UniProtKB/TrEMBL annotation, chains A, B:
Alphabetized SMART domains for the sequence: Transket_pyr
A Pfam family of this chain: Transketolase_N
Gene3D superfamilies listed in its UniProt record: 3.40.50.920, 3.40.50.970
EC primary class: transferase
Keywords: Magnesium, Metal-binding, Thiamine pyrophosphate, Transferase
EC number, as in UniProt: 2.2.1.1
Annotated GO biological process: pentose-phosphate shunt
Reaction(s) catalysed by this chain's protein: D-sedoheptulose 7-phosphate + D-glyceraldehyde 3-phosphate = aldehydo-D-ribose 5-phosphate + D-xylulose 5-phosphate
InterPro entries to which the protein is assigned, alphabetical: THDP-binding (IPR029061), Transketo_C/PFOR_II (IPR009014), Transketolase-like_C_2 (IPR055152), Transketolase-like_Pyr-bd (IPR005475), Transketolase_fam (IPR033247), Transketolase_N (IPR005474)
Family, per entry: Belongs to the transketolase family.
Descriptive protein name: transketolase
GO cellular component, one term: cytosol
Binding partners and assembly: Homodimer.
Length: 662, 662
C-alpha cells in the first residue's frame, strides 16, 4: 500500500464534508472545501493532540471560529480518530442528537473545544485559551503546560467588532502561541467582500503587532512553511490563506453560492472525477484513512512523555496541577468565606455594594490561585484588582487582565479561559454595559461554562451619569437567559452568600449584580446556613398576627421594603419582607416551599429599581409593583428615587391598595 | 475692547466646564479641558451652524462620542448661543431636569444631535449621519444638502468593537465629509493606554482607507490646518490630536485622575492664575463672550443663503425636501399597503414569514423614497434589497447599505440616519444576532428614534443550524426594553398590519420579528381595520357556548393554537384563540378591552416557541404555557417542535390540565 499524500488526505476532508452535507440536505461546504489543505497540514505536521485522550490538558486547542464550517472540524476529528465523532455521527450531520450539529457544540470529550456560530466569538475564545496557556505555563512550568491555540477564521469574524477587539488585545499581549488561519476567499454571504470592506486585512493585523504570513491556502508546502514561521515568532501569527471557496465543486468554486448553496450528487460526481477520487460515499480509501490515523501518533507519544513528566513531578505540584485542571477548588475557600460572612454580620456595617464583592474576591484570590479577572477599563470604580498583578506581555503570572474598553472580547475571552480549564474567570464591568457583553454571556450559558460575570452600577442609584448608565431592563434581560444564575444581593452578607453559590456553581455562568452605592447591613445572621441558596427567603416575618402583606425585593431596594414593613406593622398590618437574590434558584425550590415564602393569600408587592417585566411570576396579575416604567434620568440618586416614586411610602400605598381590593 | 484670541476662547470652555463640574460636585473634566482648543477652532473657523435655528437641515452635525465629556458640548452650545443651553442650565449640570445631563441627551432643538455615553456608538451615529448627508445630497443636490459631520472621539471609542466596525465601514464608503478628532491623551480610566493597547492608531485608520493628520491638539494653527486638509480630502479624515488630559488643572494634567478625579476650588484658582483668567465663576469675560457669539455669524449667513435657495427651488422639489426632512410620509403609502393586505387576505396563500416583510418593503421602497436599508451580510436570506441599488462610494443615490458582518455598527448607524433626519432607516439581520445589535437598539429606544429593526430566523423553526442560531430568550429581552414596540406577526396579513404600525410609529423604534419558515394564511379579513394595532385580538372566538379556554400566541405558533382550538372545540370545550402580535400596544389598551380579549375566568394557555419569561403578565400565575425551557438544538424544525413539545396536543393537554384544576 502506497502512502497517501497530504493532498489526498485533504481531499478526504472534502469528500467527507460533501457526503455529510448531501446526506443532511443542507450545510456549509465553503469552509471545509476551502480550508481542507490547511487543516490537513496542521494536523499531519504540527497539531499536538491525542484522539484517545481528547481532554489531555496539554493538547493544542483548535477553534473553528467560522463555525458554519463545522464539517471541517468533524472531518478532522473523524479522520484522526475521535471516538465520539464516529462515521455514524457524521452521517447524522445536523440531525437531532448528533454530535455533528449544524454548528460545533462545546464537548471537549469529542474534541470540540468551544461552541461557535455567532461570528467573531470563536477567535475571542481562542484568545482566552491562549491566555490560559501562557498563564498556566508560568504557574506550572513548560514541562506541564506548553501547547498552542489554532483558529480557523472567516471574513465575518474579522468584520465583527469583537474580532477587531481580539486583534488589538492579542497583539498587545504578544501571545505567540496563538495562530489564526484566515480563510481569505474574498466571499461573504452577500457576495464579494469588496461590497463591505476595502482594507488590507493583513496590514491591519501587522498594525496591531501581529506576525503575518501571506500564502496560497491550497499550497501544502507553503502552509507548512508558514506554520513553521508562526511557531518561531514571539508574536501572535496570522496566516493569510488565499483560498477558493468551495474548492472542488466546480459549479460553485469561488462563487457566492459556494458558501452554502445547495449541493447535488452530480457535484460530488464531478469533484470525484476532477480529483480522481475512488471512495464511495463516506468511504475514505484505506491508505488515506491510514495516513489520517497516523497523524495522531506524534501526539500520542508526546502525551505519554507528558504523562511521565507529570507522574515524576513533585507530589505537591502534581496534586495542585491536577486539582486545578479538574476545576476542583481548594478546600480552604469555604471556611474563609464563611468566617468573612460571620465577621460582616457581627460588625453590621454599611458598605458600598460593589466593594463588598471585591472584598470577597480579594479574600479568595490568595486561596484560589486559579482565579483570573478581566475588567473593561473600570479597575478603580469596581476595585476587583486588589493584590493581583496584571497579566501582560511581560508577566504571564499576572492574574488581572486589563481588557481595555472591550466588553465583548472580555466576556468571550472569559469563556475561552473557562473552556480551556485550569482558570476560573471573573469578568467585571458596569451593568449598563452588559449589553455589549451579552453575546458572550449567552454563549457561556449555552455551553454551561462556569464563568463569573460581575457588574456594578446596577440601577438609577448611580445618579448623575444619567440614563445611558442606568440599567432598568437589564435584570429582566439576564433573567430571561436560560442557564444563567442572576444574583442581586441586598447587603454584604448576601454578597458573601452569592459568591459562595457562584463558586459552587459549575454547570453554567452566574451574573453577580451590585449597586454602586452604599447599602446598610440587613442581615445579622452570619452562620453557615446560606439563605441565598434558596433563591428567596423571608428576611423579616410578619408580626402580631397572620401575615397579610408580603413585600418582595432584591438588592438595594430591600432596605425600602423593610422600611415599608415598619410602617405597615405600625399601622397594624402584619407584613413580611422576602429578599429574592436569585429567581432561578427560587424557581428550583419545591412548590410548597415557594408558596410558604410567597405567602399565599397575602397581598404581594414587589419593589425593584427596574422594569416590572417578569415580576408577575411572583406577584401574580393583581400584585403591586413599585419600580421603573421607563428609562432613568440624570440627577442625584436620592432625587431620582423620589422622582420615580421608588420609596417606602409608595410601597405602603401599594400594599394598602392591594388590601382594599382584596 | 480688544478682540479675544482663540486661545482665550478655548479657556472660556475650560472655565465653564470647571465651574459646572465644581457646582455639580462631580463630572468629567478630562475631555473639555483636553479638547478645548480643538472645539474652539472648529466652531470659530469651520463649523456650519446657527444657534438661532438649531434644527436647520443643512447644519453640520457634531457628535461628542466620548460622551462623558459632555461639558465640552454644553460649553460650546452655551458660548455660541443655543438658547436651551442657557447659563442657568449649565449651572444645573447633572441635576434632575437640566438640559445639561451627565451625558448628552438627544435634543436637536438644544444642539444635541445624539445621546452618547456607551462608548463607540457616537461615532457609529456620526457614520450614519454622514451617510444620510451623502445620500440626501445625491437626491436633492448640493445646493440644499452640503454639510459635514464632526466627531470628538476618545480612546475608548476606538477600543470598542463597534468603533472598529465604523473605521472599516466609513473608510470603505469613502465618506469624505466625516471627520474625527481623536483625543490622543494616552490615558483611559485604568491609567496609561499602554495597559491595554499597543497599536499605532493613526496607522490603523490609514489601513482602513482614512486620511490621517497628526497634530498637537493644543496648537491652534495646527488644528486649523488639519481641518483645512480634512475638508479637502475625499476620504474620511481622522485628526489625531496629541493632547494633555485635564490641561489647565496642574494637579491632574496628564494623569489618570484627570479623567474625572474630584475637582476643588483651589484647582480652579490655580488654573485662573496660570492662564491669567479674570472671569468669576460662570462669568466669561465680555470680549471673549462676544467673540464666541460672533462665531455663529458665518453660519447665520450661510443659513440665510440656503433658505433663499430653498425658497427659490422648484416647488415640487422644495415640497419633497421639506416633507422628507420633516419625516412626514407621502400619502400614497397607506392605500398601497392596505390594497396589498386586501390582496393577501383574498389570495390566502401560505408564505415565508420573512418574505412577507420584504414584499411589503419592496412595495414601500418606490412610494417612500426616504427609506434606506442596512443589512449585516444577509441579503439573500432576508431579501430586503429587492429593487434598491447599493449605497457605496460610487453611488450615493443607492439606498441599500451592505453593512458587512457588523450588526452593532448597523444598528448604531441606523440611529444616526434617523437622528440626522430625511431618512427612514430599516436594519435587517437574524434575531439570534440581535444581541450584537442590542446596545444600539437600547439607544434608539432611549432617544425615541423611529428606527425599524427587522429580524428573521426567530425561533427553533430555523432547524438544523442549531441553538447558536435559535433565539429562545430574545423576544423576552426585547419586550423588557422600554419604548420599543416588539411585533411578531402570525401571517402575511399581520405582517402588513405591523408594517403599517411601524411606519405610523414615530416616537420610538420598532422590532419586526419574522420566522424563516413558511406560515399559513390565518387572516382572511383584508379590510382597513388594523387589528394588530390593538396589540392582541380574538382571532377565533369560542363557539357553542361561553368561552372556557383562551389560547394566547404569537407568530409561527398561532397556527398551533388554532389547531389546538379545533381539537378542544371538537371535545366540547368552547375555546378562543388570541393573537398577540404586540404586547406593548395591548398593554396600552383600556383595562376592560384587555380583559375582554383575555377572557376573565377562562383557562388561559400561551404557546410561543420561546421561554415563558414575561408571559405570566397574560396567563397569570396558574396559566398554562407551551414553549421552551432552555436552549434549542440542531435538527429539522418539525423534529424540534416535537422534541420540545410545542404541539397542538401539548396545548390541548395544558388546557385540560387547567380545566381540571379550575
Amino acid at each position: 500500500m502506497e502512502a497517501a499524500t497530504l493532498q489526498e488526505m485533504a481531499h478526504a476532508i472534502r469528500f467527507l464534508a460533501v457526503d455529510a452535507i448531501l446526506a443532511a440536505g443542507e450545510g456549509h461546504q465553503g469552509v471545509p472545501l476551502g480550508m481542507a489543505e490547511i487543516a490537513t497540514v496542521l494536523a499531519a505536521r504540527h497539531l499536538r493532540f491525542d484522539p484517545l485522550d481528547p481532554t489531555w490538558p496539554d493538547r493544542d486547542r483548535v477553534v473553528v471560529s467560522n463555525g458554519h464550517g463545522s464539517m471541517l472540524l468533524y472531518a478532522l476529528l473523524n479522520l484522526t480518530g475521535y471516538a465520539k465523532i464516529s462515521l455514524d455521527e457524521v452521517k447524522r450531520f445536523r440531525e437531532l442528537g448528533s454530535h455533528c450539529a449544524g454548528h460545533p457544540e462545546y464537548d471537549p470529550a469529542a474534541g470540540i473545544e468551544t461552541t461557535t456560530g455567532p461570528l467573531g466569538q470563536g477567535i475571542a475564545n481562542a484568545l482566552g485559551m491562549a491566555i490560559a496557556e501562557a498563564h498556566l505555563a508560568a504557574r506550572f512550568g513548560a514541562d506541564l503546560v506548553d501547547h498552542r491555540t489554532w483558529a480557523f477564521v472567516g471574513d465575518g469574524c474579522l468584520q465583527e467588532g469583537v474580532g477587531q477587539e481580539v486583534i488589538q488585545l492579542a497583539g498587545h499581549l504578544r501571545l505567540g502561541k496563538l495562530t489564526f488561519f484566515w480563510d481569505d476567499n474574498a466571499i461573504t454571504d452577500d457576495g464579494a467582500t469588496r461590497l463591505s470592506i476595502s482594507e488590507d486585512v493583513a496590514e491591519r493585523f501587522r498594525v496591531a503587532g501581529w506576525h503575518v504570513v501571506e500564502i496560497d491556502g491550497h499550497d501544502l508546502a507553503a502552509i507548512d512553511a508558514a506554520i513553521v514561521l508562526a511557531k518561531a515568532d514571539p508574536r501572535p501569527s496570522m496566516i493569510a490563506c488565499r483560498t477558493t471557496i468551495a474548492r472542488g465543486v466546480a459549479r460553485l468554486e469561488g462563487q457566492r453560492g459556494g458558501h452554502s448553496g445547495k449541493l447535488f450528487p452530480a457535484d460530488r460526481d464531478a469533484m470525484a472525477a476532477t480529483f480522481g477520487w475512488t471512495g464511495a460515499a463516506f468511504a475514505t480509501p484505506t491508505a488515506i484513512a491510514a495516513a489520517w490515523r497516523a497523524t495522531a501518533e506524534p501526539g500520542r507519544t508526546a502525551r505519554a512523555a507528558w504523562s511521565s513528566r507529570l507522574a515524576g513531578a513533585d507530589a505537591d505540584r502534581r496534586a495542585l496541577f491536577e486539582r486545578t485542571m479538574a476545576g476542583d477548588l481548594p478546600a480552604a475557600w469555604r471556611p474563609a468565606l464563611q468566617a468573612h460572612k460571620a465577621r460582616l454580620a457581627d460588625e453590621g456595617q454599611a458598605a458600598f455594594s460593589i466593594q463588598t464583592s471585591s472584598d470577597v474576591a480579594a479574600l479568595l484570590y490568595d486561596i484560589v490561585p486559579e482565579m483570573m479577572v478581566g475588567c473593561a477599563d473600570l479597575e478603580a470604580p469596581t476595585n476587583h484588582k486588589r493584590q493581583l498583578a496584571a497579566f501582560d506581555a511581560a508577566d504571564r503570572a499576572g492574574r488581572y487582565i486589563h481588557c481595555g474598553v472591550r466588553e465583548h472580547a472580555m466576556g468571550s475571552l472569559a469563556n475561552g479561559l473557562a473552556a480551556h480549564g485550569g482558570v476560573i474567570p471573573l469578568a467585571v464591568t458596569y451593568l449598563p454595559f452588559s449589553d455589549y457583553e451579552r453575546p458572550a454571556m449567552r454563549m457561556a450559558a449555552l455551553m454551561g461554562l462556569p464563568v463569573k460575570f460581575a457588574f456594578s452600577h446596577d440601577s438609577i442609584g448611580i445618579g448623575k451619569n444619567g440614563p445611558t448608565h442606568q440599567p432598568v431592563e437589564m435584570l429582566a434581560g439576564l433573567r430571561a437567559l436560560p442557564n444563567m444564575l442572576v444574583m442581586r444581593p441586598a447587603d454584604a452578607v448576601e454578597t458573601a452568600e452569592c459568591w459562595e453559590i457562584a463558586l459552587d456553581h459549575r454547570t453554567g455562568p452566574v451574573s453577580l449584580i451590585f449597586a454602586r452605592q452604599q447599602l446598610p447591613m440587613l442581615r445579622r445572621d452570619g452562620g453557615p446556613d446560606n439563605r441565598c441558596r434558596r433563591g428567596a427567603y423571608v428576611l423579616a416575618e410578619a408580626e402580631g398576627g397572620p401575615r397579610r402583606v408580603t413585600l418582595l425585593s432584591t438588592g438595594s431596594e430591600v432596605q425600602i421594603a423593610l422600611a415599608a414593613r415598619e410602617t405597615l406593622q405600625a399601622e397594624g398590618v402584619p407584613t413580611a419582607v422576602v429578599s429574592m437574590p436569585c429567581w432561578e434558584l427560587f424557581e428550583a425550590q419545591p412548590a410548597d416551599d415557594r408558596a410558604a415564602v410567597l405567602g399565599p393569600g397575602t397581598v404581594r408587592v414587589a419593589v425593584e429599581a427596574a422594569v416590572k417585566f417578569g415580576w408577575e411570576r411572583w406577584i401574580g396579575e393583581s400584585g403591586g409593583f413599585v419600580g421603573m416604567t421607563g428609562f432613568g434620568a440624570s440627577g442625584p440618586a436620592d432625587a431620582l428615587y423620589r422622582h420615580f416614586g421608588i420609596t417606602a411610602e409608595a410601597v405602603v400605598a401599594a400594599a394598602w391598595a392591594g388590601l382594599a381590593s382584596a
